[in-house]
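Handoff note, outgoing to incoming analyst
You'll be picking up this chain. Sequence as last confirmed:
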Amino acid sequence: VSFAFASFDRWEEIYLNKFIDFTDPLNPVPYIDTAQSGDFKSLSARPMNTPNHVGYNSNIDMVFNLGGAMGDSSWLEIGDVPIISFHCTKDENAPYGYGGVFVPTTGDLVLNASGSSDVIRRSNYLCNNNIFKMPPVFTDIYSTRANALNSTGNLANEAGIINPNAGDEGLYPFVTPAPGASTCTDPFTSNVLVESEQGSPWDWWDESWYNNIAIVLGNDGPFEVCRARLSNPDMSAAKGKAYIDTIQGYLTPRIYRVLFESVTDTGCTVPIWAGIDNVELSSSSTFNIFPNPSSSSVTITSSTMPVKGVELYDVTGRLVFSESNINTKSYTFERGALVNGLYFVKVKSEDAEMDMKILFQ
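Most recent structure output, in case you need it:
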């Protein structure tokens, strides 16, 4: 949730192929229906959304997350708020780097997404986390520990992976013990379940309450208690509080810096980068397309350089619209006779191109 709130701010960002149902290639359907789910900041009433304190300011200065994943790292853009991430390096349900997000109870794959390591690396690359690198440098025990996990020597003994921190400010990798030998047998199927890698070692719960709730729901209480333990076998209040103390120790000074501390900007240069959608733009160049979805005309704007050309392709790759005689920072074209569906837009300027998506409905 925090990842999305920090970075998901343009409708076209949900029209990547991974978020589209192409069962009928001539009539692709977005998995995310904004008519059902509402707007970015949850301010509109929708069947799946209750307005989020409409009278309050929804602007943010930074975000932090414990595990989880971002739908796509291309959502991150220059100027997004700083991000702090805590993540278990061997989390089986949400990737530490880039990989599959799985339903914990069934093991079903939801989608491939970017976990904390991937997100924080990109956030640093785009200079969004630069405030944490400015002097005075963080030298507390928690920052020192996070940075120490960038050492190959430590990794050989603790993580078994290469550079979990990778020198990126804002990332705290948690290295948890390997799964033990505990098992649970499902009384209904006789399936034997084994311990898994820990993904949220800061959790703890009242097992008697857990047992009673399971029984009320018609499940086998002792089995559900046992199964819950498989992902956190040494669960205890003391352990959970130790993790929370570490999280607070690393996070709180960075919150204070963003909100209150006066620091000297040491500068940060964003290189020209290529995103997964063949975006090739300098840090000062952006194109926007709106409204999206659209039922009629569409406008493309540029913050710096004039739009020189626009090409529109359908999902089969067929060119359905082209205009090259353009020289303006705001260009509008009409939908005309184009049928409902997803289209790919190639926007060209003097020295850059950007591939975008538009949904006509």
